[in-house]
Design goal:
Order of helices and strands: HHHHHHHHHH
Radius of gyration: 15 Å
Structural class: mainly alpha
Number of strands: 0
Largest sheet: none
Distance between the termini: 33 Å
Oligomer: single chain
Mean pLDDT: 79
Low-confidence stretches: 137-145, 148-155
């Protein structure tokens, strides 16, 4: 709860995000650790919602190799160093993002908020949208029954 307090995220908001991520992957520890990494990186409110949704979408797309917790950890390291690292860098490359261009943009960001926006607006967002649309059209392809049910209700 303390990291949530530090970032201005209420306990209820943090708990709701954990439940959301858990409903997709069924792993409490991974959901808690991944969200902790995102909040430590300074994401809160709408930015936390957006980046969580994008990383969940990427984790669904590349479910065998890129896990939510690893992506969140790589993102935290990326923001700290201003250079794409770890699983987050791998995800960007798979999404067709030029890492040199991405790193240059991140290095030129002058505030934490600007760095976060550059990450949120990077090209990998299209993969989350594409897969959210795909799952809403064919929800039985999803591994998580809770997520499929949620997508069916939202459709």
């Amino acid at each position: 709860q303390s990291i949530a307090d530090e970032t201005g995220t209420t306990f209820d908001q943090a708990q709701d995000k954990v439940k959301e991520v858990y409903s997709v992957f069924g792993e409490t520890d991974s959901a808690v650790e991944g969200l902790n990494n995102l909040m430590t990186a300074g994401f809160n409110g709408d930015t936390l919602d957006s980046i969580t949704d994008q990383l969940v979408g990427a984790s669904i797309k590349w479910k065998d190799t890129l896990k939510f917790e690893g992506l969140a950890d790589g993102l935290q390291e990326t923001l700290a160093t201003r250079a794409a690292l770890g699983p987050f860098a791998e995800m960007l490359e798979r999404a067709g993002v030029n890492l040199d261009t991405f790193d240059e943009g991140l290095a030129n960001a002058t505030t934490e908020a600007e760095k976060q926006q550059r990450v949120i607006l990077s090209h990998f967002e299209k993969y989350h949208t594409k897969y959210h649309t795909h799952f809403s059209q064919m929800p039985c392809l999803c591994d998580s029954k809770a997520f499929c049910l949620q997508v069916q209700v939202l459709s």
